[in-house]
C-alpha cells in the first residue's frame, strides 16, 4: 500500500513547477528590498531551518551577502532589541502559523529589518506580516514528514537568491522539476535502494554528512530518519565530523554522505567515504556522481544539476529511502509518534 508520504514525494515535480512559475516574477520585488539591505537573517525551525541553511550558503556563495540563522528566543524569550537596520529578515514556515516564527518576524521589523516570508500558507499570519510573501505552491501536505513543502521552500529560496543578485542562471532552476521526476524514477529502480534500506534497518543509527550547499540536505535527511524511522541520526558538516565525532562511525554506525555531482566540496566527501570504509564501516552515498559512488559501499543517484540548485533534487533519493526504511521497520511514515503537522514552540 502506498503511503501518503510516498504519494507526496511523487507530487514534487508538479509542485516545483507551479512554485517556480509563480515566484520567478517576484524577483524584482526582492531586488527592491535588496537595494535597501546588506545582509540576510533567516528565521525558521525544523525542516524550514534546514532549508534556511541552504539559503545561507546560496546567499553567501553566490550573492556575496553575509547571511545568518536567527535565534528566535532572542526575540520571544529574552525580548532583546537589536539594531537590524540594513538587514533583510526572511522567515520560513510551511504553514505560516507557527507563532514563534511570526512573532520573531514582527520583532525583526520593529528592530528595523525589511521582511520576506516563505510559506505554503497563503493568507497565513506569516504571509500577512511580511512586506514580500513568497507563497509556495505545494498544495495540501497530509503526511507529517515534510517533502513537497520542503523542496518548494528551496525553490523559493532559489528565487530569493536570484533577487539578491546571485550570479547564477535562471534556466538551471527551470530544469529542476523535470530532473526531480527523473530522480524519482532512477531512485526507485536503483539496486542500491533496497541494499541501503536493509543495512540501515539492522543498525541503531547513522551519521549523515555533507558540506557547503549540500549541508542543509544532510541535516534534512538526518531529521527525516529520526522523525520517520526512530533511528539516531547525527547530521554534521564533514569538517565537523572530522574534528572528533567520526569516532562514532563503526560497523554498527554507517555514514550517509550527501554531495552534488560537482562543486568544491565533492573531493572532500569522496575522501571521507574512503576513510569511513577504511575504518571498517559502511559508507552510503546520495549524489556525488560516479566518483562518490565508486568510493562508497553503495550509492543512490543524484540530480544532474549545477551545485547551486542541486539540493532541490538531492533530497529526493533520501526521502524515498526514508519512506522505504520506515515501512521496512514496520512504522507508518505518515504519522510519526509525538509529532503534529504544525509545531508551536515558546
UniProtKB/TrEMBL annotation:
Source organism superkingdom: Bacteria
GO process terms (BP): carbohydrate derivative metabolic process
Group of enzyme by EC: transferase
Location of the SIS domain: 29-174, 196-336
Alphabetized GO MF terms: carbohydrate derivative binding; glutamine-fructose-6-phosphate transaminase (isomerizing) activity
Keywords: Aminotransferase, Repeat, Transferase
Record InterPro entries: GlmS/AgaS_SIS (IPR035466), GlmS/FrlB_SIS (IPR035490), SIS_dom (IPR001347), SIS_dom_sf (IPR046348)
Annotated transmembrane regions: none
PANTHER family: AMINOTRANSFERASE-RELATED (PTHR10937:SF8), GLUCOSAMINE--FRUCTOSE-6-PHOSPHATE AMINOTRANSFERASE, ISOMERIZING (PTHR10937)
Name of the protein: Glucosamine--fructose-6-phosphate aminotransferase (Isomerizing)
Organism from which the protein derives: Actinomadura luteofluorescens
